[in-house]
Amino acid sequence: MKGQDETSLAHERNENYLGAAKVMLSDIQFDPPLPRNISQKKLDRLKSIFYDKDCDRLNINNRIPGVISSEVFRVAIQSHGLTGNDLKHTSSDNLPTLRFATEQLKALHGRHRIQVASEFLFPGDKWWVVDLYSDRYGTL
Hints:
It contains five helices and five strands. The chain is an alpha/beta fold.
C-alpha cells in the first residue's frame, strides 16, 4: 500500500509541476510567516555551509517547492514573454526571474534556507530557485 501511495503522490506532483524559476526572497511566503518555527541550530549549520561552500542556489537539490495558482503563473510567465514549457525545459543556468505579489507564492519548505540567504546574499541578488506547482488540487 505504501508503494502505491508514493507512486500516486509522485504522479500528482509531476502533473502539477509548472517549472522552475528564480524568485526574489521577498516574494517567497511561508505559512506561518518567517521567522516563526525557526531552529537556531539549523540556521547556524546553514550559515556555516553558506560561508564555507557558498549557498549553491542553482543546484537542483537546493530548490524550494512552492505553490501558486494557475492564473498567477499565467500572468507571471506572460509578463516575461514565456510559455509554460519554457520553465520546464530551461537549464539551471538560464532560469528566468519571476516576480510575485505578497501571498501569491507559498513555499512548502525551505524556511531556514531563505532566512540565511536573506542575511548572506548581497542586496539586489537575493533570489532562490523555486520549483513551482499548481495549487489547482490544493496544497501538495
